[in-house]
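chain below, 187 aa
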Amino acid sequence: ITDRKIAEKERKHYVERLSALNVYGRNLNTAENIREIYRLTLDAMQKVLGFEYADFFMIDKNMLCIVDQRGYPKPFPLELPLDGSKKGISIKAVKTGNSVLVQDVRKDIDFVEGLPGVLSELAVPIKIGQKILGVLNVESKKLNAFDEKDQELLEILASHAATAMSNLEFAKNLEMHARKTRENQQK
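prediction:
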């Protein structure tokens, strides 16, 4: 009975987190700029999913760069070359196009220390189709801090963020096209 109650409590907690993510998904789709997408995504990572240390990476030319982060004592800039010369769990997520869950970073040769004392890391690519836009990355000072449910929820959030970024780009292109059409009509 105790095992069943624990399983039911875990399932209920998962469903609550999933429902809250859907609310954030709706909010992300009404974001007016990319900074708002970063903020809303990190809010969800921290408040809904409960991740203490969270990073939002974006690909800029040949680099994976932190564009926003939460939970760290002080912000630190981090740029990782996409060629893998500096390694990184997040780079592995970009290269494979899949989430990377590392329960003990001390055993992973790709780990790049940003915050001292980190023991677990989860990196999820933000992608549209096969195109990788960036990475959502979370870290913990606990071993085995993340599980498959955390990974699944972070993947859902990454999907929401990718859709919001795509919609924002589409709206920007549509607005530019409408402006050019008006200019041509005036000419």
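The longest helix spans residues 148-186. The chain has a mean pLDDT of 89.
thats it, cya
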